[in-house]
Write a structure and sequence with these properties.
The protein is α+β, with helices and mostly antiparallel strands and 153 residues long. Helix content is 28%, strand content 31%. The protein starts with a strand and ends in a 5-residue tail after the last helix. The structure holds coenzyme A (COA).
């Protein structure tokens, strides 16, 4: 699992029970998963086609630090299935509790909105990065190392 984004719950994120609104949680997950899918596949054109079941296991209050993690479940021909997890992070202990988790599927599209193939290079690169760096998204230094190793960029 790799960290994709961190968010602090604000007052305007709350619903009528003073917990973070469920729709807001789903939106944050979709944002994180969509941007993760786009970065992995080198394209901004990734559409959410399916979100699996979600259970809201823990309430989120104002000030909670939320961390969203993800990993690839599988690449298809035009689709990419991700496992996504949102956790509450305790700054005092470093402990994390799962707020919710689900699988989300994205489809790569062309300019007309039609599904198109995700390249083999993208799939091989993800596996290569997972093996060498333990994650699919690299920082600048890691990207340089990857280039030096002359692998699949
Ligand atoms: C995404 C979209 C272009 C796919 O078009 P389509 O003609 O249905 O394409 P296909 O039937 O060929 O399916 C494309 C891929 O999605 C997968 N897919 C289709 N229905 C699915 C479902 N219910 N669950 C999981 N995957 C599904 C297919 O298996 C295929 O994957 P593969 O190529 O890896 O095997 C079209 O459904 C669409 O525009 N949906 C709206 C998306 C949207 O607006 N999302 C919200 C905003 S991002």
């Amino acid at each position: 699992m790799e960290l994709i984004t961190t968010y602090i719950c604000k007052e305007f994120d709350l619903g009528i029970h003073n917990n973070m609104f469920g729709g807001r949680i789903m939106s944050l997950l979709d944002d994180a998963a969509g941007s993760y899918a786009s970065q992995l596949c080198d394209t901004p054109r990734m559409l959410t086609i399916k979100v699996d079941e979600l259970t809201f296991k823990k309430a989120v209050k104002v000030g909670s630090i939320l961390k969203i993690y993800g990993r690839v479940v599988k690449f298809g021909n035009t689709s990419l299935q991700l496992y996504m997890e949102m956790r509450k992070h305790n700054v005092y202990t470093g402990e994390q509790e799962i707020v919710t988790s689900t699988n989300m599927t994205f489809v790569r599209i062309d300019e007309e909105g039609n599904a198109i193939t995700i390249s083999e290079r993208v799939k091989l690169r993800y596996n290569d990065r997972l093996k060498n760096f333990g994650k699919g998204l690299l920082n600048t230094e890691e990207t340089s190392k990857e280039k030096e190793r002359n692998t699949l960029i």
